[in-house]
Structures are given as C-alpha cells and as structure tokens.
C-alpha cells in the first residue's frame, strides 16, 4: 500500500492522457490507498484519507464502473467517520448503501452504526449494527477487494461495543466472546485484514467481563489481550492502542482487587499510570490515577495514596478549566 501511495502520480498521469483506461486505474489506486491498512503500515491521516476518497469518487463517477463507485462511496463514508464528521459520515453511508454490492453495503452499515453512535443516537446505532451483523452472516465468500472493506468480526466488535454503551452488558460480552472465537480461528493472513479488531475485542471483552462481575474470567483473557496490544499494531496505530492498553491495565487492576490480590492490582495500576503519562495516553490518565489511589488505599499506603489523589484533583481541575475555556 505504501508503494501505491508513492506511485499515485503515475495513474493520475494515465487518467489525464487516456481517461478510458487510466480513470479506472486511478480510481482503483486511490481506493487502495483509502482502504483500512494492513498490519505493519502506518495509516494516513484522516484528512489525507478523505482527500483520496473524494478524488476516487470523482474519478469513478466519470467511468462506467458501478462497483468501483460503490466501494469508493463506502470508503468515503469511512473516511468521514475517521475525521469525526459523524453527521456527514452517516449521510454518506446511507448513500453508499443504496448503490453498493452486498459486501460494500454491509461495510457502509458498519460505518453508519459508528457514526450514529458518534452523534449520540446509540440505541439506533445498536439496531443498525445488529442488522449489519446479520448481513455479514449472509454473505458468500467475498473477493479480495471486498475482504479489505470489512468483515464479520469487525461488525461484531461494533455491535458488542454498542450493546455495552446502551447497558446490555451480558449481551455485549456474548458478542465479544463470539468475535474472539472467530478471530482465534483465523490465519495470520486473514488477521492482517482486521489488525485492529483483535486487540480491541480482547481488551473490551476484559472490560465487559469485569462489568459483569466475572473477574476471574477477565483475568484469564488478560494475558492474550496484553499480547494483542504489542508488536506491529502498537507501532501502526499508537493513538488507538495506547489508551486501550491503559484501559485494559485499569480493568485488570480492578479485577485483581476484586479477587483479593491488591499487590498484583498495584503492579497493574502502576503500569497503567506510566503508560497514561505518555502523550497519546493522556486521555486515560485520570482513570489510571483513580485506580492507583484506590489500590494504595487498600494496601494502607496512605501517604502515597494522598499524593496520587492530590495529583488526580489537580488534573481534574485542569480538565474542568479547559472545558470551561473551550
């Protein structure tokens, strides 16, 4: 994919010189650049991804390739989602779904579900996500281009996340467990198409199990979840992985406390705070500090607990001031 990005000037020139042949070639190259990346490659910025998607849609509109246009429209909706433009992403996903193949339509529905959640329409989002899962279950084996758009594990992860958001915790855990089982049966090549799904599913499964009071089960999944958050995925998407790792460590610390092991809980909480002090983990620092303070209180380390609670209070005051100023 990186090579295709570098060589984009070539299909652009071909499209100018010979539109009939060069147009589809350029559209395919642009769509390839926008498609969610494989393991080991850093993703482009949302702004750059959206610019490519807009160009791909414009190129395909000038061709007779309806399938190419439907994929480009779905990828544009996804690019809008990644840019945080949720209302536009929702509208674009609806448009893409009206013109798409079954696989591209399912992907567009997954995007729409996440966009609806982004604007606070969580119940509706969960309903769309459920329909998306049903659509993926009914698909025949997709071709190579369609596999890159989305998958049943990705749709299940979205559905599990939204069930948790509306308080249907037990159902959410069941969906996450099904998804984790599907991922476990995949080959390394298949997993390369869903590189961010597995760490998210395992980390969020730990959180769901903890919320359900299944602390021992959560601790059992913990090592696999921690391993999934290392390696290439941590390098390619640190802005996603680092906050997720902090959240996982906090959940594990809370589970260790609940099962009567405050020493191990302190170790995980200390790790969580250290990770959260890194720039990309700052959004999770408050929860990590609160967890560490609670664990130190359990251990009777009152002086250290007081220090941590003072830092937490100062951090929360700063965040309140920032919100007021914004």
Q: Which SSEs are present, and which pair or pack?
A:
Layout lengths: L1 H5 L2 H9 L1 H16 L11 H16 L4 H17 L3 H13 L3 H17 L3 H16 L6 H6 L2 H14 L3 H16 L3 H4 L5 H15 L3 H14 L3 H5 L1 H21 L3 H15 L8 H14 L3 H24 L1
Give a verbal description of the structure.
The chain has helices spanning about 1-5, 10-15, 20-35, 45-60, 65-80, 85-100, 100-120, 120-135, 145-150, 150-165, 170-185, 190, 195-210, 215-230, 230-235, 240-260, 260-275, 285-300, 300-325. The chain is built from 19 helices and no strands. The radius of gyration is 22 Å and the shape is elongated. The mean pLDDT is about 90. Helix 7 (about 100-120) runs parallel beside helix 10 (about 150-165) and helix 18 (about 285-300) runs antiparallel to helix 19 (about 300-325). With about 325 residues, the chain is mainly alpha-helical.
């Amino acid at each position: 994919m990186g090579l295709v990005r570098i060589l984009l000037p070539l299909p652009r020139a071909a499209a100018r010189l010979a539109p009939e042949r060069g147009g589809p070639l350029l559209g395919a190259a642009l769509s390839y650049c926008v498609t969610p990346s494989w393991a080991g490659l850093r993703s482009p910025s949302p702004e750059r991804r959206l610019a490519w998607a807009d160009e791909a849609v414009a190129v395909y509109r000038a061709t007779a390739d309806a399938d190419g246009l439907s994929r480009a429209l779905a990828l544009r909706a996804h690019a809008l989602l990644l840019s945080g433009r949720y209302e536009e992403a929702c509208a674009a996903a609806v448009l893409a779904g009206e013109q798409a193949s079954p696989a591209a339509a399912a992907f567009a529905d997954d995007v729409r579900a996440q966009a609806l959640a982004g604007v606070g329409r969580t119940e509706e989002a969960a309903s769309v996500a459920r329909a998306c899962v049903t659509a993926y279950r009914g698909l025949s084996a997709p071709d190579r281009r369609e596999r890159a758009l989305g998958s049943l594990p990705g749709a299940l992860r979205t559905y599990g996340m939204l069930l948790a958001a509306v308080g249907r915790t037990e159902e959410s855990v069941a969906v996450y467990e099904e998804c984790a089982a599907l991922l476990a049966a995949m080959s390394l090549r298949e997993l390369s198409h869903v590189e961010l799904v597995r760490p998210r599913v395992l980390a969020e499964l730990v959180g769901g199990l903890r919320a359900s009071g299944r602390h021992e089960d959560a601790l059992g999944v913990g090592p696999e979840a921690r391993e999934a958050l290392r390696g290439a995925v941590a390098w390619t998407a640190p802005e996603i992985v680092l906050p997720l790792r902090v959240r996982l460590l906090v959940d594990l610390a809370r589970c260790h406390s609940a099962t009567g092991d405050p020493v191990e809980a302190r170790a995980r909480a200390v790790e969580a705070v250290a990770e959260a002090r890194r720039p990309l983990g700052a959004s999770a620092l408050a929860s990590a500090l609160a967890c560490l303070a609670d664990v130190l209180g359990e251990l009777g380390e009152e002086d250290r607990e007081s220090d941590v609670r003072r830092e937490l209070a100062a951090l929360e005051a700063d965040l309140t001031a920032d919100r007021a100023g914004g």
